[in-house]
Amino acid sequence: MKKTKMLKKNYEFRDVLSRGKYYSGEYIEAFLKKNKSDKYNFLGIAISVKSGKAVRRNHVKRLIRENYRLVENALKVGNSIVFLWKKKKDIKDADFQKIKKDLNNIFDKADLFEVNQ
């Protein structure tokens, strides 16, 4: 069962970015904040226009979304999560395995896994 809904509004992103706890990986930065829902996580992905053209940015978003989907069932619910691509990292370096490693490290630091993987 899908336990995640997407953040879409600007004020939703701003709330998580301003009040959330910051976690950093090699390529990805994450902000996590508890939400009022006991059934869902809320996910937002933002990549700066300065990182690259739309095709590359959308490719990275798809990679992040797919990696998140694979670990979604192992995560605790009730969190709002925003992922940002680090501006200093070249967007051409993005690949599935690097993002997977980054997300797993971030979720470990944040203690979001229900059981240890």
Explain what this protein looks like in three dimensions.
The protein has 117 residues and is α/β, with parallel strands linked by helices. The chain has a single domain, classed as 2-Layer Sandwich (Ribosomal Protein S5, domain 2). The protein contains three helices and five strands; from the N terminus they run βαβββαβα. It has a five-stranded mixed beta sheet, with helices on both faces. The longest helix has 18 residues.
List keywords for this structure.
117 residues; alpha/beta; Ribosomal Protein S5, domain 2; five-stranded mixed beta sheet; 3 helices; 5 strands
* Cα-to-Cα separation, first versus last residue: 20 Å
CATH architecture assignment name: 2-Layer Sandwich
> In the residues, how many domains can be counted?
1
Coarse structural class: alpha/beta
The helix content, as a percent range, equals: 25-40%
Proportion of residues in extended strands: 15-25%
Radius of gyration: 13 Å
Top CATH class: Alpha Beta
Average pLDDT rating? 93
- The succession of helices and strands, N to C, reads EHEEEHEH
What order do the helices and strands come in, and which of them pair?
Elements (H helix, E strand, L loop, with lengths): L3 E3 L3 H10 L1 E4 L3 E7 L6 E6 L7 H18 L7 E7 L10 H14 L8
Parallel strand pairs: 1-4, 4-5
Antiparallel strand pairs: 2-3, 3-5
Short description:
This protein has 117 residues and is α/β, with parallel strands linked by helices.
